[in-house]
């Protein structure tokens, strides 16, 4: 009886003739598209960035980027004008769109949804539809990270036309 069980166990673990056993995963597999896209945020992670508005003197914004959802998303939390305006952005991979998507909720009572295109490490283009804010249909922003300065420049779509709205230049808070 015991020898019959051993034979059965061996047969269950033996590949069928003509088939190979599954290969072990490669030791250094290439990152998935989601991992590669989210890795572009790595230079921004784990730091608080403080930036001054380029159009509104004295307006300061602080933003922090971190991985969330088991590393499957990026969360950006910011607070401007001493907390008078705040927002949280969640950025994740959308397998159906084969790209990054984002959701931004604000203390102003509106939110945005859209796409995030990776241009390089710390460099992105955001295309966002605005929901719940009369007068602004969409927001477009470009970010760069050069020489330790994270820059955001944005435009708003108002009545179908794109209007430059300024931006911020951020440096890491020591």
What does this structure look like?
The chain is mainly β and 174 residues long. The protein has a single domain, classed as Beta Barrel (Lipocalin). It has two helices and ten strands; from the N terminus they run H-H-E-E-E-E-E-E-E-E-E-E. The chain has helices at 2-13, 33-39; strands spanning 48-53, 60-68, 73-80, 85-94, 99-106, 111-120, 123-131, 138-146, 149-158, 161-172. It has a ten-stranded antiparallel beta barrel with strand order 1-2-3-4-5-6-7-8-9-10. A hairpin with a 4-residue loop joins strand 3 (73-80) and strand 4 (85-94). The protein is globular.
Protein topology:
Layout lengths: L1 H12 L19 H7 L8 E6 L6 E9 L4 E8 L4 E10 L4 E8 L4 E10 L2 E9 L6 E9 L2 E10 L2 E12 L2
Antiparallel strand pairs: 1-2, 1-10, 2-3, 3-4, 4-5, 5-6, 6-7, 7-8, 8-9, 9-10
What share of the residues does DSSP label as strand, in percent?
over 45%
- Indicate how many domains the architecture comprises: 1
| Rg for CA atoms | 24 Å
Number of helices: 2
CATH topology: Lipocalin
CATH superfamily, called what?
Calycin beta-barrel core domain
Query: Low-confidence spans: pLDDT under 50, at least 5 residues?
Result: 1-16
Name of the level-1 CATH class: Mainly Beta
Structural class: mainly beta
- The CA-CA distance between the termini, in Å, is 72 Å
Rough outline: globular
**How is the main sheet built?**
10 strands, antiparallel, barrel
Helix content: 10-25%
Mean pLDDT: 88
Main sheet: which strands, in order across?
1-2-3-4-5-6-7-8-9-10
Q: What's the β-strand tally?
A: 10
What is the chain-wise order of helices and strands? HHEEEEEEEEEE
Write the CATH architecture name. Answer: Beta Barrel
């Amino acid at each position: 009886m015991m020898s019959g069980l051993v034979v059965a166990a061996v047969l269950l673990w033996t590949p069928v003739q003509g088939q190979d056993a599954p290969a072990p995963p490669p030791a250094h597999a290439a990152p998935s598209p989601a991992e590669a896209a989210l890795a572009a945020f790595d230079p921004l992670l784990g730091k608080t960035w403080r930036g001054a508005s380029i159009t509104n003197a004295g307006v300061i914004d602080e933003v922090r980027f971190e991985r969330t959802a088991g590393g499957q998303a990026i969360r950006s939390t910011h607070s401007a004008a001493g907390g008078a305006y705040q927002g949280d952005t969640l950025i994740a991979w959308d397998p159906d769109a084969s790209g990054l998507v984002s959701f931004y909720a604000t203390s102003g009572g509106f939110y945005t949804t859209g796409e995030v295109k990776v241009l390089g490490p710390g460099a992105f283009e955001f295309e966002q539809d605005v929901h719940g804010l009369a007068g602004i249909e969409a927001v477009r922003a470009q970010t760069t990270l050069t020489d330790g300065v994270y820059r955001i420049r944005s435009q708003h779509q108002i009545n179908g036309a794109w209007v430059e709205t300024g931006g911020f230049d951020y440096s890491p808070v020591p």
